[in-house]
Amino acid sequence: MAQVRALHKIMALFSANSIAAVNNSDTRIAGCFLTGIPGLEQLHIWLSIPFCIMYIAALAGNGILICVILSQAILHEPMYIFLSMLASTDVLLSTTTMPKALANLWLGYSHFSFDGCLTQMFFIHFLFIHSAVLLAMAFDCYVAICSPLRYVTILTSKVIGKIVTAALSRSFIIMFPSIFLLEHLHYCRINIIAHAFCEHMGIAHLSCSDISINVWYGLAAALLSTGLDIMLITVSYIHILQAVFRLLSQDARSKALSNCGSHICVILLFYVPALFSVFAYRFGGRNIPCYVHILLANLYVVIPPMLNPVIYGVRTKQILEGAKQMFSNLAKGSK
User: Fold this and answer.
1) What is the dihedral of CA 95, 326, 317, 57, to 10 degrees?
2) Which of 242, 250, 253, 280 could, after both became Cys, cross-link 284 (CB 3.0–4.6 A)?
3) b/e for 158-197, b at 16 or more Cβ within 10 A?
4) H-helix or E-strand containing 13?
5) Are 112 and 121 in contact (CB under 8 A)?
6) What HEC string does 105-174 produce?
7) For residues 296 and 187, what is the distance between their CA atoms, to the nearest angstrom?
8) What is the pTM of this model?
9) What count of other Cβ atoms lies within 10 Å of the Cβ of residue 30?
10) What is the torsional sign of CA 315, 319, 323, 325?
């Protein structure tokens, strides 16, 4: 019903000739219509307000965090380099999705060329590099606590460069085949995606072909990348917590647990909604309302980016001091 109502909206906005052209064209030519959040059309304008505020807060918070890390030489350490990568990924992920999602909420729909939809889908999933960055941060924390005397010799600039290259390469290699899988499907006249942005399974469902391979490839890609990262992060934190509780100093133990707490908050913010989205879209069926999945998917791309700078900025003394120093320098320079 939601898709039918969305189609009626779209048809009312186009001439009869335009509609005929769309209906008689292949989806690749006609493009795709994104409907926003089906079932909550009457709330689209109201929903756009918190989403817009969260998006602006995410851009501002992560932008400030990146500027602080880049401008303060004392923060040019592996932990803060990985944190700046996390902030950069957050900015890119939210910017890849939210402008179009907000257009959907404001207009009731938005149009995407087929190639544009594939491009957005690719970058959304490619930016799951976020998972690899969290793994790198867990590794950094593990080395800092479990092998502090070897920290400088293990996490050299060369090693950090290799970690970054490996993360980018893995994400690209895992996601690139999905483009070929979608390109080789046969598409029907249906070109309405009941979502606020283009997703792998959302595009696949436009096809008249059997999409079993898309379902299983998407699941395998998520498990082999994100699932493997979760396992390695869990093992890292088990060793970290064992090392922390062996510390004799209460102050050192409290500081280490505080840092671990920040990391764990960020990890849960990222993985819980991401994994729910992956499994719900493939196996939720009629048990989970469509608007629940789409709302969660939209929250996933904006809430973690908004909260990450707060979690790290408020709980990390060096970043707070770096921010004060940066704004102090800016104030002096403006006089």
Assistant:
1) -30
2) 280
3) eebeebbeebeebbeebbeebeebbeebebeebbbbbbbb
4) none
5) no
6) HHHCCEEECHHHHHHHHHHHHHCCHHHHHHHHHHHHHHHHHHCHHHHHHHCCHHHHHHHHHHHHHHHHHH
7) 27
8) 0.81
9) 18
10) positive
Strands 192-193 and 32-34: parallel
Q: What tokens were used for 41?
A: 């059309």
Token pair of 101, please? Answer: 């999602």
Amino acid type, 82: F
Name the β-bridge partners of 207: 187
Q: Residue 57's Cα: distance from chain center in Å?
A: 16
- Reading the chain (335 residues) residue by residue, the pLDDT tens digits are 444 444 444 444 433 334 333 443 456 666 777 877 777 778 888 888 999 999 999 999 999 999 999 988 888 888 889 989 999 999 998 999 898 888 888 876 677 788 888 888 888 888 878 888 888 988 888 888 888 888 889 999 899 999 999 999 988 888 888 888 888 888 876 778 877 788 888 888 888 888 888 888 888 887 788 888 888 888 888 888 888 887 777 777 777 777 777 777 778 877 877 777 667 666 655 677 777 778 888 888 888 889 888 887 777 778 888 888 888 877 777 66
Whether the Cβ atoms of residue 269 and residue 72 lie closer than 8 Å to each other: no
